[in-house]
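Re: that chain you flagged

S.,

Sorry for the slow reply, it's been a week of failed gels. I finally had a moment to sit down with the sequence you sent. For the record, here it is as I used it:
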Amino acid sequence: MLRTDASAAERLAPARQFALFALVGGAGFVVDAGMYLLLVQVLGANMYPARVAAWLIAATFTWRLNRTLTFRDADRRPAWRQWLRFLAANLGGGLVNLAFSTLLLGPVGVAPVLAIACGSFAGLLWNFLASRKFV
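Prediction finished late last night. Pasting the structure tokens below so you have them in one place:
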């Protein structure tokens, strides 16, 4: 049986979404690392609260881009409710990200950008699956 273009497009949708999600995540990493460096190195903030604040800012940034690009055809709940659902759904990946990067920043002593990159990568798959399913 010959498949139609629609069925081929439906099969590619998750791969396309994951690619966009990963690109948005890359941009989020830049925001995350940039905010962390700004908070710690410019404003003199403690590294642990700065790590949490930078993650929250980056998570909000990626939520907005994912809402606009990655999942643009998804159900449109009110933005504030969807943002809260995004944060809740991505909390697992965020905790993995924060724990991994904080461990590398603190006791291990890895350079901040590398530590944040490792944390971001560690939480990527969790966040995609949770966002796709729950947000």
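What I noticed first: The mean pLDDT is 85.

Talk soon,
D.
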